[in-house]
Amino acid sequence: MASNSSRQLPTWLRAVACLAVGIGAAGIIYLMLPQRELLPIVQGVQERSESPALCPWRDPKRDLRSLFPGADGYDTRVLVLSSLRTRILDALGPGGRLDENILQVYPVRKLGKPIGTVLVRRANGKYGAIEVVAGISPDKTIAGVVVQRHREAGESERLMSNSSWLSEFAGKSASSDFELGAGLPKPSSEAAASAEAVSRAVRSVLVEFTIGSEYGSLRDPDEL
Q1: pTM score, two decimals?
Q2: Helices 192-215 & 85-92, crossing angle to 10 degrees?
Q3: Which of 2, 61, 76, 222 ranks highest by number of CB atoms within 10 Å?
Q4: β pairing state of 73-74 and 102-110
């Protein structure tokens, strides 16, 4: 009868067998674990989940005809406002907000010369979002205001296309009175909430641009 020692496997063979058993067990455990979705890695993009998306300028050709007749082009630039937050919020006063650390601006030109700037801002109206486009003259006063998109109804809807009321913004600066019934005509009570949203949007974006262009500098979006 053979002894126990004579039936033992060689040391190297026992080591290989143990390794194979370990790898197999690890594979079984991995397959039993819940699998996580693999997410793509995106470089150079910062998450902006806590602040609203920048409002796009939807119809430049139409708005340029209205705000800067004769304009033949525009550029896309940004003002970085992060270092100017305190100054801007002080200028906006009680209830003022700065939701973005950058302001997208559109310098407008005619025959290669700058003739103004277009700013776009989204506000919360009575029935939904109101998107406002403001033309700013070189002296940082308002050249004109148009509403590019809204969901208002009734009196509020009519106010959004009321050129007479919108023309009251022309000539105002960041230090002007934007209060309804004082610096601006007060609409009907039904349209008051929508009018207030437009007024606040225009004033806030004008204040941001005035301070940003005075203490900052225009940058190409690709530089950010």
Answers
A1: 0.76
A2: 140
A3: 76
A4: antiparallel
pLDDT of residue 223: 83
DSSP-derived letter for residue 222 is G
- Nearest-angstrom CA–CA distance, 151 and 122: 12
Task: Report the Cα 50 to chain-centroid distance in Å.
Answer: 11
Calpha distance 81→95 (Å, rounded): 18
Consecutive 10-residue runs of the chain (224 residues): their mean pLDDT?
51 57 53 45 36 82 97 96 96 94 96 97 94 98 97 95 96 97 95 96 98 92 84
Query: CA–CA separation, 136 vs 145, rounded Å?
Result: 9
3-state SS string for 83-140: HHHHHHHHHHCCCCCCCCCEEEEEEEEECCEEEEEEEEEEEECCCCEEEEEEEECCCC
List Cβ neighbours of 15 (8 Å cut-off, separation of 6 or more).
none
Max CA distance (Å), the chain:
114
Reduce the DSSP state of residue 192 to 3 states and report it.
helix
Residue-level pLDDT at 45: 35
The angle subtended at Cα 133 by Cα 128 and Cα 136, nearest 5°, is: 150
Q: Phi and psi of 74, rounded to 5°? A: -155, 160
Q: Where are the domains of the chain?
A: 60-223
Q: Are 198 and 179 in contact (CB under 8 A)?
A: no
